[in-house]
Amino acid sequence: MTRVGMHEAKTKLSQLVAAVESGEEVVLERRGVPVARLVAIEKPKRSRAELCGSMKGIWIADDFDELPDDIAEAFGMR
Q: Are 37 and 25 in contact (CB under 8 A)?
């Protein structure tokens, strides 16, 4: 655990956040008295099933990759 005064915390905030992200706990002090604690937020763990199910309910038309004639002609494809 790292203890840091307010002034130092202001000047080294990005370094303190990096330390917290790597698992360290940082205590902020005001005049030597602890007033706050910086800790990392736990990232939500998503299961593989949740990731695969994220496309659930999405429908793609059979002719999705076919351009209408007028648009294909405008792009010089026909």
A: yes
Model pTM above 0.85: no
- Calpha distance 18→57 (Å, rounded): 39
Contacts (Cβ under 8 Å, ≥6 apart) of 38: 16, 17, 20, 25, 26, 27, 28
Mean pLDDT, consecutive 10-residue stretches, the chain (78 aa), reads 94 96 95 95 75 73 86 87
Domains of the chain, residue spans: 1-41
Domain 1-41: CATH class, spelled out: alpha beta
